[in-house]
Design brief:
The protein has 195 residues and is of the alpha/beta class. The chain has 8 helices and 6 strands, in the order E-H-E-E-E-H-E-H-H-E-H-H-H-H. It has a single domain, classed as Pyruvate-ferredoxin oxidoreductase, PFOR, domain III (Pyruvate-ferredoxin Oxidoreductase, domain 3).
Length: 195
């Protein structure tokens, strides 16, 4: 494991970024590691840009990930993932991005148009080592809630090669923090998403 192993979660307020950071931190503490979590918020919490920095290591690190040092970018929203990638990703970054968009108000009002998913993917591929674009919406609809997106994405990141995240510890942290069997099902679905 690289020390620190850095995960950046990018999305909008209300998608569960902050809870995702708590779950990963709790799970890695059970492994004897020292996670540090830092959050940055856009203009508004609900619907505004939210970025969660998670640094996992054997010693203490500052809470914010330096430019180019992300190991994994978890994108809960495509445009927010691209925005974060342009600031923080590098040639070692693996991006796991939900294709389920949350258009900002200037798009819903008709002032701007939302970029095509293929254009977002192409831009991410020019920045990152590997990009996984996940069609999460059908799975989440089948599970009956988009509120389990964070657990689904945690499942996905747990399955990548060289991930320091232990599946059992993550599942225990999900139950401890969210107390939801539906989130466990979402985690297990996410763990299969990259294979």
């Amino acid at each position: 494991m690289r020390d620190p192993y850095s995960i950046l979660v990018a999305g909008v307020g209300g998608q569960g970024n902050l809870v995702c950071g708590r779950i990963i931190a709790e799970a890695t503490m059970k492994q004897g590691l020292r996670p540090v979590v830092g959050d940055t918020f856009g203009a508004s919490r609900r619907g505004g840009s939210v970025v969660t920095h998670i640094r996992i290591g054997k010693q203490d690190w500052g809470p914010l990930i330096p430019k180019g040092e992300i190991d994994v970018l978890l994108g809960f929203e495509p445009v927010e993932a691209l925005r974060a990638a342009t600031r923080y990703a590098g040639d070692r970054t693996v991006s796991i991005v939900s294709m389920m968009s949350v258009p900002p108000s200037n798009v819903t009002s008709g002032d701007l148009s939302y970029p095509e998913i293929n254009d977002i993917k192409r831009e991410l591929e020019s920045i990152c080592k590997k990009v996984y674009m996940l069609d999460t919406e059908p799975v989440l609809k089948r599970l009956g809630s988009t509120r389990v997106l964070n657990s689904y994405m945690i499942g996905a990141v747990s399955s990548i090669e060289d991930s320091p995240l232990d599946s059992k510890n993550l599942q225990e942290a999900i139950l401890n923090i969210l107390n939801s069997e539906k989130d466990l099902v979402a985690f297990n679905e996410g763990a299969k998403a990259l294979h």
